Give the backbone structure.
Amino acid sequence: MKINTFRNFSRDAIHNIWRNSWMSVASVSSVVAVLLIIGLVLIFMVNVQYIASFVEDKIELKAFLELDVEYEEIIEIKEQLESNEMIGTIIYESKEEALEKFSQQIGERKDLISGLEENNPLQNSFILTIKDPSQAGEIAKSIERIKGVEEVKYGEEIVDKVLKSTRFIRSLTLIVTVILAIISIFIISNTIKLTVYGRKKEISIMKYVGATNWYVRWPFLIEGAILGLIGALLALLILGYSYYYFTGMAQHTALSIISNSLVPAGQMINQIKWYFVIGGLSIGVIGSILSMRKFLKV
């Protein structure tokens, strides 16, 4: 398409929006309403996934070493762990450090472990984080095969439940988003259809004088894209301000514990803004295409 032709189509689209201002307002309002609903679901899902990812990042493996392992062997074990690309951070914890940590955990009941300093029953260990929590079982088995490692523990049942929950959440996010997108396209197409219906005589005349389908279609597509984009920006502005206000207010109330686990407002807006822009444009364009099919059959 030539630039001049596109400019003419764009001018016609803007003129049509202004001439049919009430229908344009109705279309934009429909886009805003639909995207607000999708946005609320999206914000909820993003936060749930954010918390789920945070929990996944906290999954650790603890490799307990044999009691008679020597210092040189510990160094060799660490080198083998460092060579494993699936392992993130590696922290060595001596049995003395483990006893001290346990002592701090039980607090006032330190008398229960008095005397264990001389005959410490705990083991030296490596505390490991992994890059892919779903591979925790396989990584644990590979570590257990290293000479000097007695066993690896990582709370298998808890990890499996966490991973199943996060997979379910991500699948649910995708399904809900697709369903809402289909519903939104249906609503917008019906709204735009009213606009197109009001100009069916104009479309018929253009067709009778030899205008191609695409020549008739382009101004409506651009019009739908503009209306969809305006609706997306308005919905994003409303949701962004509301989310910023909610997270800020929650920090000063009993919800402060929850607010600290939520995605920060700036990060949330950056994460969802392109979904809104692309979603608004797509809804407007697809809605226009669906609305015009009937009126182009002249």
About this structure: Residues 225 and 281 are 5 Å apart (CA to CA). The two ends are 24 Å apart (CA to CA). The longest helix spans residues 156-197.
